[in-house]
Structure formats: C-alpha cells, structure tokens
Write a structure and sequence with these properties.
The complex is a heterodimer. Chain A is α/β, with parallel strands linked by helices. In chain A, about 50% of the residues lie in helices and about 10% in strands. Chain A has a domain of about 290 residues: 7-stranded beta/alpha barrel (Alpha-Beta Barrel). In chain A, the strands form 3 sheets. In chain A, strands 1, 2, 3, 8 and 11 form a 5-stranded parallel β-sheet that branches. The chains are: A alpha/beta, B alpha/beta.
Chain lengths: ~475, ~425
C-alpha cells in the first residue's frame, strides 16, 4: 500500500489594532489600523499568496489529480482578501474548482474560544464552515483549531459538530515513543480521527529551508524525497502542516522555496512510495492504530508545544478573561457591528503580542509583532476593550430583546464572485481615502444604535447598518 | 582610581556608582587605590584604600611638570560651576566655600585644602587636584598598573598621573556636559572632557546613549569607547508596608526639576490623565530651576488640587515616596543612565521611562516612551492605573530584573577593559 503525504497550509492575517489611546475610550469606536492591514496584506499577497497559488494550480494541472493539498483560511484573512486583495480570493476559488484542494474548518476569528467558551466556539466554527461553503463550495469535514490547539475534550466537542478528522501537533511529550506517522483517534470519541503534524519534516521546510548554518543546507527536492523514503516502511502518513506564508514570506523567493515547491511533487510521485492525499482522504484510507491521550491542551508553538505563548502571563489572562466575560451579552445583542468587533478582538494574535516569552530571543517573534513591548500591546488592547465594554453595556441597556429581524446580518454572504470583487474595490477606495471617512462612519454607528431601540422603518435601518459595518468594522463587503 | 567623592559623603550619584564599582572589582580580585580630593576618614575601605589628595604636598620642580602646568593653567579662571546641585544645595555650598576663603596662590609648595564638593572654586580645585595627582602617581608608581578616572572633574588628574607614571588611562563617562547643560555647554568643561577622552587609552560610558554622544559630539574613535551599564546594589526596603493616606492612586515624578528631567512633559501628561481619570493624584518631588514654572503651569491648567509638590526629598523620604506611589515616571529628555527607575522597581512601583535614558537600554519590564510623546505617557499612566494585571506583572518581573543588575557583572566588564588596555600597552 502506498504511504500518504498530507500537505496542509494555514492562511491567516489578523486585524491589527490601531494605536488607541485612553482618551479615545467612549468617543471613537474605530479600532483598526487600516494602513498596516492593507499594506501588509498587499505585501504578503504579492510575495506569497499569489505566486504560491499560481505554483499550486500549475502543479495540480500538471499532475492530473495526483497532487493534492489542503488549506485553512481564517475569517479575518477572508475579510481582508475581500477588502484589500480580491485577486487572492479569486485564485483560491480557482484552486477550489480543481477538486484537488480540501478546505479545512477552524474558528472564524482564529480565536482561543475553544479554551474559553464551548458555545462561542461552536458558533465560530459554524460561521467559518458557512464561509467555506459560500466561497469554495465545500463544507469542511476536517477541523484544525487555532494554532493546532487540541485536547481530548476539544476533540470530543469537534466530533459532536460533525467533523470526522482533526489535525494537531505531533508533540513529543504526548506521543512518547509513538510515531506521528499513523492515524490516531480521539480518546473520548474514537470516531474522530486525529492526524499529527510531523514537526521534523514540516520544520525542515518552514523554518530551516534557508538557514545557511543548517548542516543540510541547501535542501533540494531529491534530498527531501530521499528522507521520506528513509522513514519506516510501516509508517502510513507523513503530515506536513505549516503556515502558507512559509512560501515567499518567511522563506523568501530568492531562497529558492518556490522552485522547491515546484519540483517536490514530481520527485515524490516518481521516486517514492508516497502519494498525495488530503486530510479527509488520508484518514479514510488508513486504519486507526490507537487513541491519543491529550488531557491538557497542546499547540504547535515553541519548544513546549503548549499555550504559554497566548496564555502565559498575567496580562494575557486578564485580557482573555475580560474579553470572554462578554460572551453571553454579545450573543444576546444581535448587533452586527458589535459582533464584528468582538470577533476581531478575539484574534489569538492580540494575546501573542502580550507574551513576555520572547525577551530572551526576540528576533523571530518580533517579526510578527507590531508592538515594541508586551506592555504596550496590553495597554492598547485593554483601551480598545474598555471602549468595547462600554458599547456593550450601552446597547444592552438600550436594546430590548425583541430585535429578531437583525438576524439577517449573520454569517454567510451570498453574492457572486464578480460582485464581490467589484464591491471590495469600492470599499478599498473608501478606506484609502483615509481620515475623513471613518469619522463619518462613526456617526452612523452612534445614530444606528438608538434607531434600533426606537424601531424606525426597516429600510432606513438596513441602509445605516450596512454602511456602518462596511466602513467601521471592515466586514465582508458583500453583505446583503 | 580617581574620584571626586566617596560614600558616605555623597553630593551626586557619582559616589554611589564608584562605590558599587569598587566593591564589584574587589570581588574580582582587583586591587585599587581610590584617590579623592578630601577624605573624611569614615569611608568604607573594605573594597579599596582611600587616599586623600589633601595629604600630599605639591613639590613641582621638574620641567615636565612645569610644562603640564602651562597646559592646564588657562582653565584656571574659575567660574560658578555647579554641575549637579539643586538651588538649596548650591546656596549652602557656595556659602561654605566663600567663607573658607581659599586663595589660589596657595597652590605651590603647600598642601591644598579641598572642599570636596562642587563649590564656587570648583575649577581651582580641579586643577589643584590634577597637580597633586602627579605626585600621588609618582609616589605610588609601583602599586598600580592602570589609571581610572571618573567624570570630568578627575580627567585632568588622570592625565597628569598618566604623564607621571606612563601607565594607561581609562576614563569613565558617567555624564557629559551635554547631559548637564543641554545645548548651552560650558566651553571649559567641554574642553576638559575632550582632552580627557583624547588622552585616554580607553573610554567607558554608562550607556550606548552616552557612547554615541562621546563619539559624535566629542569626535572620539568608536573603537576606543566601550559601554558598561551601571548597576545597583540595594539594601532592603524599610517602607514596604506603609499605609496610603488617601484611596487615590499616586503617580510620581522624582528628580531634579530641570530641563533635562522633562518635568513639563509630566505635567502635560497629568493634565490629560486627570481629564479622564478621577481617582488619581500626581506628585512632583524634587527641586530645581524649573520648579516655580511648573507650579505656575499646574495652577494655570487648573489641576493644582490633584497635583502636589513636595520639594527636595532626602534619604528615607525618598523611600517613603516610592512606597506611596502607584506609578513612577521618569520623562528625562537626556539621561546618561538614570538609577531612580531601578529604585522605584525595587520598591514595587510600576515604572514608565523615556527612551532617551541609558537605563532604557537594559530594562525590559518598564513602559518606554519618547519623552515628548505626552499622549503615550498619559496612555501608559492610565493603563497602569486601570488594568491591575500590569501592576502584578511589573512587581513580579521588575523585582527579578533589578535583582539581576549586579555590580558584579558590570565590574567584570570593566576588568576586561583593564585587561585589554594592559595587553595593548605592555
């Protein structure tokens, strides 16, 4: 039987917060750094998403069904594609049409909700699945949690939501002597199959590829295939999970990463016993060998493979508990603008910026971090959250629980691809015009809230919330 | 080693730094002879022998010395140089000095009586100290391998000791004239500093900030200049459990109220915070030439009911002030090092420091802002007051951090500078 090589790439961009001073609290409800978000998205689109998608598409066509990959694209990345990079979104849609690409489920806002609030977790997963179905025409069967966070309990909940397969890290302290190169099952619900990341093979590409001090430098497709052939013949599946930004952004084009990507499938197909399968196919093909026991949550980060990068110090715990203390009120409120902001505030990246772990070896992590210090990150986040708390409080007292019509503005947008593209360019221009627009939009939000309370004509209400969400909260522009 | 003062006779921060350094060096097996203009006899001599220049007689006869004197004499037109002092102290000292009535004809063939402070005749004393240093170096020539001079007051002494002994000179820059006077430098002091830096075989600066000033403003070869960050050795805190008089949070500025310390930025930030936060009080502790202006400014902004001035604080009062504080702010425009944030952290006070201070180069667990960025300063103050998790973090990690800044480590680096200098000149 052929062994399986399973490729999965993570695509995520957070909504970075603007510098939000305490004197803005209660006055200014716009939280995002449009300039950074736009310029970073454009930069990564040019360096990574567009060229990498072109290579993948070319490979799929060339190998006629023998080359398969899978992606997980977060909701905040999708929203930013809509706003700033519709060309990237189109190229992902083109990949989806080939039938050789599986789209994987996760939380819509790349959040840590699985650790905080089971119901909120479920809402976000559903929202993400809806978005996948909307954009790519497939409802995810495989799940990956934010940062590959996994525990027996989380897996159990994921199984209940109807997923058949879940991805996580092949953490040494969990596996012990066991190999990550088999299909495992959740300890509480054996129906959920678990694929474990082979971190050595994955990191050879993701971290070490362009490292000149690495004794295996330079890495070629032939060498890599030889390593794959050298694995135990009884191994069944090698899982390569990594950030998609590995291609062209973490490893620059000049390092030859795209050539590596281009030639690896050919050598693997021609010179090895491996075949490419998507996670769902892999878990169907291979038998479960054993349950994997993970009582405490693991992730794919750092040496420790734990949660300390996001929930390691007092600052992070404080911010985390404050933001999730709102869970009930938000779900009750039905206020679209509020929900939008709440999602953005849950991005795990905000907590990552507050980590004090990197003081010793900051360079790798500084790259991802717009703040100079974790204290800076915390103060800014808490200022935003303070304003958000006030808004939640105000709407909670203003809005009676009768507003059910607003439900229309929940997850999946329903416009065609073309419409979405043109609309987002408009939205882009609007934000590009900078400073004047947001202040106008803010006013709309302010007036929009009381309007709901006094229930005016529905047409007016619709129009105002639409413009408000469009400009204020960077939503999917294609909402109806 | 040439210094100007040594504990317990402290007028500026220099003595404390010298004391810490000598203790650190002694631990690493370095023998030192510490020369001060005036020794009182009660100095702690456990780490180094203290030599008073006063006990030496000046017997200048050889031609080399005459030559030296010629080079130095032009600076002798002393003026009122008060580099480190508050107005009160200035008054005390200048009174002291004038009543002692030192005449500068007494230089030759006489012992010189030093005030040991920073008085009116500072320039005379600096020159006299340099002349005596020549003899001291001659007499002790077999007892030392390196000359180490602390700050400009002793650079001339260092130079003359180098001439007398032919041994290498290391100068230690704790502050430059630019830190003390902004752009209005005293030309004489600048000249002495520059001479010292040129003649030195190696220069030690207390921060990279100071190192850059030495390189750019004094035109010194970068290879000659090494940064050794200062350190702190604390005794235990006596006032940790002091009770607050009010329920309000207290935000403190503590230092000389002069241009370099940036008190005006602190007032502006206070104004911004007070507009939004009710339960807070600001305190400006210290004195200086901008004090009255600050009081007027606070009154004009209409925040005087929540903004207090304490005047100059000494010894235990400083500790007590820290113990009462919830936030400490050091908004210095220019600070070669800045030891007080470390004292604040030690007293478990979350600290905000300006990026324009040397200490910002080594501290991780403090909020760092540009001194001019009043918005950021206000925001940081507000953040610490409003989000208690920050205070918890600062207390836990700040303590650890300050604990790790030992003179031992700094002394190790100084010792390696010595070794380099000895190696290259031998």
């Amino acid at each position: 039987m052929k062994q399986t090589l399973c490729l999965y790439f993570q695509v995520h961009q957070p909504f970075r917060l603007r510098r939000y001073r305490f004197f803005d609290i209660g006055k200014d409800h716009y939280y995002y750094d449009d300039f950074s978000n736009r310029s970073i998205m454009r930069k990564i689109a040019e360096r990574c998403y567009l060229p990498a998608n072109a290579v993948i598409l070319e490979l799929i066509k060339k190998h006629k069904g023998k080359f398969k990959v899978s992606y997980s694209i977060t909701g905040s990345a999708l929203e930013q594609f809509e706003l700033y990079a519709p060309d990237v979104l189109e190229s992902f849609k083109a990949l989806a049409k080939t039938g050789c690409v599986e789209f994987i489920g996760e939380t819509y806002s790349h959040s840590l909700s699985s650790l905080a609030h089971p119901r909120e977790f479920e809402v976000q997963v559903k929202r993400h699945s809806d978005a996948m179905e909307h954009y790519f025409g497939q409802r995810p069967k495989t799940f990956r949690n934010t940062e590959l966070i996994y525990s027996d309990a989380i897996g159990e909940q994921v199984a209940k939501m109807g997923f058949t397969t879940m991805l996580t890290e092949g953490a040494k302290h969990v596996l012990g002597w066991k190999s990550p190169n088999f299909v495992y099952a959740n300890a509480n619900n054996p129906k959920l199959k678990i694929l474990l990341r082979n971190f050595r093979f994955s990191d050879d590409i993701a971290f070490r590829f362009s490292d000149r001090n690495w004794n295996e430098f330079p890495l070629t497709a032939e060498k890599y295939t030889a390593w794959l052939n050298a694995t135990d013949k009884k191994d069944e599946v090698v899982n390569l999970f990594m950030d998609y930004e590995t291609f062209g952004e973490h490893q620059w084009a000049a390092s030859g990463i795209f050539e590596f990507l281009r030639y690896l499938p050919r050598t693997v197909i021609a010179n090895s016993n491996f075949e490419f399968l998507t996670p769902t196919e892999a878990s169907k093909k291979h038998q479960v060998v054993a349950p994997v026991l993970v009582p405490h949550p693991i992730s794919w980060a750092d040496e420790e493979r734990d949660l300390t990068a996001w929930l390691g110090n007092e600052l992070q715990h404080e911010a985390f508990s404050k933001v999730y203390s709102l869970s009930e009120q938000i779900t009750a409120s039905n206020d679209a603008a509020l929900q939008k902001d709440w999602q953005a505030l849950q991005n795990s990246d905000h907590f990552y910026y507050m980590s004090t772990k990197w003081f010793s070896d900051g360079d790798v992590h500084k790259y991802f971090n717009p703040y100079e210090t974790p204290y800076d990150a915390f103060i800014n986040y808490m200022n935003v959250l303070s304003d958000f708390l006030l808004r939640v409080k105000n709407t909670a007292s203003a809005v009676a629980p009768t507003v059910a019509k607003e439900k229309k503005i929940s997850p999946a947008p329903k416009t065609t691809a073309k419409k979405a593209a043109t609309k987002t360019t408009v939205a882009k221009k609007a934000t590009a015009k900078t400073t004047v627009k947001p202040t106008v939009a803010k006013k709309v939000v302010k007036t929009a809230a009381p309007q709901k309370a006094t229930v005016k004509k529905t047409t007016v209400k619709k129009a105002s919330t639409k413009t408000a969400t469009k400009k204020v909260t960077n939503p999917k522009a294609s909402k109806k | 080693m040439f210094g100007w003062e040594f504990p317990p006779h402290v007028a500026g921060g220099l003595a404390t730094a010298c004391y810490g350094l000598t203790k650190g060096l002694a631990k690493h097996g370095v023998d030192m002879l510490f020369v001060v203009p005036k020794a009182y006899g009660d100095e702690d001599q456990s780490a180094t022998r203290i030599v008073s220049a006063e006990n030496f007689e000046y017997t200048g006869s050889d031609t080399e010395l005459e030559l030296l004197w010629k080079h130095l004499i032009y600076i002798e037109a002393g003026s009122n140089l008060i580099p480190y002092l508050s107005p009160e102290e200035f008054e005390n000292i200048s009174h002291d000095v004038s009543s002692k009535g030192i005449s500068h004809t007494s230089h030759f063939r006489h012992k010189f009586r030093f005030s040991g402070g920073y008085g009116k005749n500072l320039m005379n004393e600096v020159v006299a100290y340099a002349l005596l240093a020549y003899n001291i170096a001659k007499q002790h020539i077999h007892e030392f391998d390196i000359i180490h001079a602390h700050d400009w007051l002793t650079y001339l002494a260092g130079i003359s000791a180098k001439r007398a002994s032919g041994k290498p000179l290391v100068i230690h820059v704790h502050a430059t004239e630019f830190d003390r006077s902004g752009e209005n430098v005293n030309q004489m002091v600048y000249d002495i500093e520059r001479r010292g830096m040129q003649e030195a075989d190696k220069i030690i600066t207390v921060s990279n900030l100071t190192r850059n000033i030495v390189i750019n403003r004094y035109g010194i070869d970068p290879h000659k200049v090494v940064t050794v960050h200062n350190a702190v050795d604390f005794n235990t805190n006596k006032f940790e459990d002091i009770e607050h008089g009010t329920t309000e949070k207290v935000v403190t500025f503590l230092g000389r109220i002069t241009y370099q310390k940036g008190p005006d930025y602190f007032v502006e930030a206070a104004y911004k915070v007070l507009k939004r936060h009710k339960n807070v009080r600001f305190v400006m502790a210290g004195s200086g030439d901008m004090l009255n202006r600050m009081i007027r400014h606070v009154a004009r902004l209409g925040i005087a009911d929540r903004f207090n001035f304490t005047g100059f604080l000494r010894g235990d009062d400083v500790q007590q002030m820290f113990a009462l504080s919830d936030v400490y702010v050091m908004p210095s425009v220019s600070e070669p090092f800045g030891i007080s944030p470390l004292e604040a952290m030690r007293a478990h006070v979350p600290t905000i420091i300006s990026k324009q201070s040397g200490v910002a180069e080594i501290l991780k667990h403090a909020v760092k802002i540009d001194f001019w960025d009043v918005d950021a300063m206000a925001d940081a103050i507000y953040g610490i007051l409003s989000y208690p998790a920050l205070t918890d973090m600062f207390i836990r990690l700040g303590d650890e951090e300050v604990e790790s800044l030992k003179w031992d480590k700094a002394a190790m680096k100084v010792k390696s500078v010595y070794e380099q200098v000895c190696g290259s000149s031998a």
